[in-house]
Amino acid sequence: MAEQEFTKYPITCEGVSTDIRIRGIGKNLNYEITLPEFQLPTLALLDNIKSKLIVEMDISGIEVFDEKVIAKLKKQFTKRAEELIVEDLPNISNDNKYHLISKLIREMLGLGDIEFLLSDENLEEIVINSSKENVRVYHKKFGWLNTSIKPKDEAQIQNFANIIARRVGRQITTLNPLLDAHLVTGDRSNTVLFPISSKGNTLTIRKFARDPWTVIDFIKNNTLSSDQFAMLWLAFEYELNVLFSGGTAAGKTSMLNVCMPFIPQNHRIISIEDTRELQLPDHLYWTPLTTREPNVEGKGKVTMLDLLINSLRMRPDRIILGEVRRQEEAEVMFEAMHTGHAVYATVHADSLLETIRRLVNPPINTPANLLNAVDLNVVMFRDRRRGMRRVLQIGEIIVNEEGGKISAKPNMLFRWNPITDQVEPHATSQKFFEKLSNHTGMNQAEINKEIKSKKSILNWLVKKNVRDIFNIGKVMQEYYLDPEFVLKAATKGEEAGKVTPKEAKHKKMKRK
């Protein structure tokens, strides 16, 4: 069976463009990248320039936490590197000069050739197992792939780890061989040094989405329909508590993130995460908080519990909790729910029933009566065979008392049908719409009308292919200023196709 090329696409890293090819036989695919090649005299020249730059710019011990700071540093670095290159090679062409500068930036301020992989938006994960193996990547479309990049030696992998550690003011050594940190771009990295990792030094990078998913993407790729998203919109608008469950990489945080624009713009949002993954529209009143590991002396650790307790002193309207793992976190979370804060959190569980079991049993061990504060539970599912993520179940948690014993059970409102690939109604609500009615004063007919209106707006955005987070945020902002006008624009858009979300604000001002 002959090798086949499945796709080819360009990427750009530090001003240098190259092509990515996915080739292979059957399911045995490789990720091939064409890297610039340099002759030995050129490499010797670059080593000499590196030495000069290290002395002049003193970048070896710099700590960088802000992407703007690193951008400014790269600009200064590029200017000085260009001067040194022209000084040694006065007749060099601009194309070759920029290739050399790019290589210097990648090696001195980044992770060498790994920077090309970080620039590929189609990748979710980058893994270095040891210097004996090629780098592996997880591609959004093709899954795990073996790349054509191979680390030079174990020292190079450890040097990558040292660069990452220095950027966040940490150290990784033989005595302290584990490092969990963030790159300046927000990507999360994890390093395990030899001999703890017995094959060799291991580096794993989970990439931060540059172009985050939105509700429109999820409707278009059939993760969830506009009917159910309209109901979630109503829940988020009127401050009901929602838990998102699912297995590893099932899309819990992604689903939580796409629902965030449903929150009104005048509500203060505090998010608490181990890794900064949420990306909210600029118009929202949002304060993101992230945990911190201790330094070499074991000091300075900031846990999720610390941030959760502190967030209650920050007058939040909405609290987003990255993942509930421990009893203390769950206790504070449910306390926040019961004291009037709208809380959204993720839980590692594969079904509605498993979510309840996870919450009421060790290590979380939450009393069953507290689960009554959860208004909706959305369960995500990842079909690895077909390479897709779906909402598996949407339901309520019903708390009952029988014979003096309090218990919690699920009431599944919707469930995914794998045959039709649709999320279908399963049972009637026992508490969601009643609580919504108590919060809003609307009767069931008015609630149904609201859901229908929101559905038409979402379908309008799907039809107009308005899918980036900025424009979704602008439409939601406009909706909370004048819902009737946005609904009217959506209706006209469906009929005539002449009104687009970007025109809404202009037309409103013109009307006034």
Structural features:
512 residues, alpha/beta, Beta-Lactamase, 2 domains, 9-stranded mixed β-sheet, 38% helix
Please describe the biggest sheet, giving its number of strands, its sense, and whether it closes into a barrel.
9 strands, mixed
Strand content: 15-25%
User: Mean pLDDT, nearest integer?
Assistant: 88
The helix-and-strand class reads alpha/beta
Strands of the widest sheet, in order across it, are 1-2-3-6-5-4-9-8-7
List how many beta strands DSSP finds.
18
Name the poorly predicted regions. Answer: 495-512
CATH architecture of the largest domain: 2-Layer Sandwich
State the CATH topology of the largest domain.
Answer: Beta-Lactamase
Describe this structure in words.
- With 512 residues, the protein is α/β, with parallel strands linked by helices.
- It has two domains: 203 residues, 2-Layer Sandwich (Beta-Lactamase); 196 residues, 3-Layer(aba) Sandwich (Rossmann fold).
- It has a nine-stranded mixed sheet. It has a nine-stranded mixed sheet with strand order 12-11-13-14-10-15-16-17-18, with helices on both faces.
- Strand 15 and strand 16 form a beta hairpin.
- Helix 1 crosses helix 2 and helix 9 packs parallel to helix 10.
- The radius of gyration is 26 Å and the shape is globular.
